[in-house]
Amino acid sequence: MAAGPVIRTAGVDGVLISFSDTLNESANRAALAFRAAVDAAGWDGVEETSSSLVSVYMRFDPIGFDHATMHHRITGLLDSRDWYQAQLPEGRRFWQIPAVFGTDLAPQLAQAAAQAGMTEAQAIASLAAARLRVQTIGFAPGQPYLGTLPEGWDIPRQSQLTARVPEGAVAVAIRQLVLFSVSTPTGWQHVGQTAMRLFQPDADTPFLLRAGDEVQFTPTTPDALDGMRRDPMGGATVTVIR
Amino acid sequence: MSRGLKVIKAGPGVTLQDKGRPGWLDAGLSRGGAADLLALAEGAALLGQSDDLPVLELAGMGGEFRAGVDMRIALTGAPMQADLDGVRLAWNASHLLPAGASLSIGGTVSGSYGYLHVGGGFAGPRWLGACSAHMSAGIGGPVQAGDELATRPDPGGDVGMALPVDDRFSGGTVRIVESLQTRLFSADERDRFTATTFQRDTHGNRMGVRLVPPGDGFHIDSGRTILSEVIVPGDIQITGDGTPFVLLSECQTTGGYPRIGAVLPSDLPLVAQAPAGAAIRFRFIGLEDAIETERRAATARKALARAVKPMIRDPHSIPDLLSYQLISGVTAGSDSVDED
Questions:
Q1: Is the CB of B137 less than 8 angstroms away from the CB of A67?
Q2: N or C end: fewer C-beta atoms under 10 angstroms in chain B?
Q3: Nearest chain B residue (CA) to A48
Q4: Does residue B154 sit at the A interface (CB-CB below 8 Å)?
Q5: Where are the beta strands (DSSP E) in B90-232?
Q6: With contacts defined as CB-CB under 8 Å, which chain B residues touch A55?
Q7: Does the distance separating the beta carbons of B253 and A145 come in below 8 Å?
């Protein structure tokens, strides 16, 4: 494992605490747990926190509170325990999300499977068997990065962008899946399609997934998926992890 | 007739904006809000009200509006040609828009984003605590012809006031601090970066603006891959082809391109407002200097209300001045040259 956490300033009003410089399980757990601890500490001056794959970002009022004070608080909290051994946060949920793999709804399954050294059937079995964790939410509203897939899926992003994948698309690269919350261009390969609407600004719960939640995709047919499109959850079921 | 502001015509980039909705970064939603936050403060000072109230942001082009009731308005940000029933209105100023009068706002004269404020503010729908349309997230949408924009009650106040404003509408030098990956760029690359005069690309929006160097792009040493990391407005990403991209209020919330620096929040309006082709340079300053700069900017924003002065009717604000026969037989200005 890399050396312990590194604290860096991020712009005039931000601090980043990185638990690793590569993606790994213990650093992702550390980031999730440390961010929860910063929120629980309720430090004055802190305006916003978030976790990404292996780090925690904290934005504060730099006029009322100086960087040295924030740095001191952060090191104090970092030293209070071994964050790499931290438990995952409480209240996490397990989502089972219907998805069509391949067909014209997800046209890059064949090429992604080939790159991963699998037949299409093996690829579908592998993707459907994986119980994945929301490692971070980011890029677009409510959009999860899900990991970690088996080693075979360590395939690169495409050098040429796909012009547009639809909302609800499942795309793969570097042992992760992204479930798209908006229609967007991407370098990730479009292998599955769900009917899930991850961000609904008008709903009581605008964001469905949270960092730390777990996800498994259940293969379904295009016809069945069509029937799920009226449901904002896209036929997904959710249970609290105990 | 509606008590609000009727939209007769609107440019493609007219949206309701406020200071945005910070606090959803962890949910993947950037804060959004007005591209030029200083313009919000200026309009608030002109109308003697809070800078939290929703305003109309006019990207590049305004529109035509009709008031349902007498209302106070202020015009700030990128100067645009504005007329009230055919009479030219001063920019960076407050005016009375009488019921039934028609307000016409054309394209930007310089800069990119103009703002139309009303006394009491607009009363738009709120999502996640703010009224701002966030186009890339699909929150709200552009204001369109036929819309009736509701306004909140205006406690009233002066009109005919002006606010002197420094030019931040034609590029210039932007102060930056080091950011997460600044030191991954060699000292030579960083020096070359600050010695370069960039041109604001024609391509740009509320997510960010691309800056074009006259020569080679900028690169970090080796083919080092960078883990996707949090992104906030002001970050300067160096994209795959080596050109810098300065992120604005509607940026994505994570990204994997290296960041060579971060623009000071108080200098970000200068980047957002730079029109296509404008020259931009960057200058690194230390963190302590940057914080002192932000402190002074915050003080200056608070002092804006005291800088508001009754408008002096200068010759430029008199409509059709050039057509007046100032001296018998001779028209003033450039008309006479054009006629040769």
A1: no
A2: C
A3: B23
A4: no
A5: 93-97, 102-108, 113-118, 148-149, 161-162, 172-177, 198-205, 208-212, 229-230
A6: 229-230
A7: no
State the Cα–Cα distance between residues B48 and B119, nearest whole angstrom: 9
DSSP type of residue B4:
S
Closest CB from A12, A182, A207 relative to B27: A207
Kindly state the greatest CA–CA separation across chain B.
74
User: How many whole angstroms separate alpha carbon A60 and alpha carbon B212?
Assistant: 32
Q: Give pLDDT tens digits for B148-192.
A: 999 999 999 999 999 999 999 999 999 999 999 999 999 999 999
User: Phi-psi category of A175—alpha, beta or left, where left has phi over 0 and alpha has psi -120 to 50?
Assistant: left
User: What is the per-residue pLDDT across B295-317, written as a single tens digit (0 to 9) for each?
Assistant: 999 999 999 999 999 997 655 55
ipTM computed for the complex? 0.91
User: Average pLDDT of B135-145?
Assistant: 94
Of B26, B138, B265, the CB nearest to A201: B138
| Cβ contacts of A49-52, under 8 Å, gap ≥ 24 | A49/B26, A50/B25, A50/B26, A50/B230, A50/B253, A51/A136, A51/A211, A51/B26, A52/A136, A52/A138, A52/B228, A52/B229, A52/B230, A52/B254
What's the CA gap between A204 and A202, in Å, rounded? 7
DSSP assignment of B281-295: EEEE--HHHHHHHHH
Closest-approach residue (CA) in chain A for B182: A10
Predicted TM-score of the model (pTM): 0.90
